[in-house]
Amino acid sequence: MVRHAFYWRWGTPEGEHVPASRYVEGWGRRGDGSVVALESGLRVGAAWFRLFPEAAPGYGFVDESTPELAIGVVPSRRGRGYGQALLEGLLEHARVEGHTAMSLSVERANPALHLYERFGFRPVGEAGDTLTMHADLGSTPEPRLRGEGQDGM
Fold first, then answer.
1. CATH code at 94?
2. 147, pLDDT greater than 50
3. CA distances from 3 to 16, 45, 59, 68, 133 (A)
4. Sign of the C-alpha dihedral computed for residues 102, 104, 110 and 113 taken in this order
5. What's the pTM?
């Protein structure tokens, strides 16, 4: 799932090294949390968060007390609501664990950007075409479904 989270575009070379493996290496340390999406018993997506030290930050690092999240959904299952379900589950898990905020890194062209915005993530930094986003979990709004609030809905 790490590959699907960080290489979200179709056609990313399969043999390419995933430098983002630091997001899962040594899994289970303090501050790690995850949820998995299953379809017919098969893993089709996962979302996880991890705390990073300032000396070795993640791509969406804000501070040492704010976990950074990542979501990966297999390409054949994208657009079916798994990303939203994973994000909902992960944010609830983070709240239960006592986290009050969450951060992430996303390219502007990634369709997931709009999902993150619906969940209250706002840009706090940028580097090239990549945004670092942050959400206060105490005030994260309930996401609006596409089309919600329009006439007839």
1. 3.40.630.30
2. no
3. 9, 11, 15, 17, 21
4. positive
5. 0.79
